Amino acid sequence: VERLRGSRPQQFGPGTLTRIVAVASGKGGVGKSTVTANLAVALAARGLSVGVIDADVHGYSIPALLGTDARPTRVGDMMMPPEAHGVRLVSIGMFVEGNRSVSWRGPMLHRTLQQFLADVWWGDLDVLLIDMPPGTGDVAISLGQLLPHAEVLVVTTPQRAAADVAERAAEVADQTGQTVLGVVENMAGLAQPDGTVLELFGAGGGEEAARRLGVPLLARIPLSVALREGGDAGAPVVSGEPTDPAAVAIAGLAASL
Ligand code: ADP
């Protein structure tokens, strides 16, 4: 335990060798958690050592997306995170009973996030992904304070109106000195059997958000039944059906980071 504890201060301090990427969105339901889980598995498939913190307090879903209900095990006063699909993970959902909702106030959220960073034995991670709650709430501000050197990926849909809210999420990152890596457009066109593409949620929202933020559009992930089914089954599409167009787009995103 003393040896583990010794690795604590530098776990994710300013000199850390771990790349910390917060996945943010302006609003819920844009596929932020689905993208985070699949991106984590895709990065692990590239041979990287990957951890995920599920900090989406009200919509924690990373354990289900990765098909696990395991909890961290205690070693002294450290926690060893469970591993699923080659990814180490902790979630707020692991610390509430059953499927209860979480109604914590800011300071408690801040402490929990701090614990996830300091008291979880992550080992040598190449990448730590953080699934943020949607919007610009307490967790985003806490994370900015705790990890000013984190980079931020903004997930949005192709809807033009979504670009406005995505922009607000990125502003919080800017204010705390974090770098916005780029925009990921999710739920882009749905390929039809006749070869045409149905733009269910419109088009251009990702490009618009990227233009306004002055960052690249890093990926366009199409609507995909396989992606959604993989999420429901806890079997990420990037490993289960790697030729699915959504899986290909996420693997491309992993390669570009
Ligand atoms: P968020 O984390 O932004 O709230 P989720 O990742 O929970 O969003 O996704 C919301 C819903 O949309 C889920 O049911 C998920 O399976 C589905 N979904 C996400 N991305 C896609 C996609 N590209 N194609 C089809 N369904 C998707």
UniProtKB/TrEMBL annotation:
UniProt keyword annotation of Ion transport present: no
Domain of life: Bacteria
Keyword Transferase: no
Keywords, alphabetical: ATP-binding, Hydrolase, Iron, Iron-sulfur, Metal-binding, Nucleotide-binding
Binding annotation for ATP: G26, K27, G28, G29, V30, G31, K32, S33
Family per similarity comment: Belongs to the Mrp/NBP35 ATP-binding proteins family. In the C-terminal section; belongs to the Mrp/NBP35 ATP-binding proteins family.
Function: Binds and transfers iron-sulfur (Fe-S) clusters to target apoproteins. Can hydrolyze ATP.
Quaternary state and interactors: Homodimer.
Annotated protein name in UniProt: Iron-sulfur cluster carrier protein
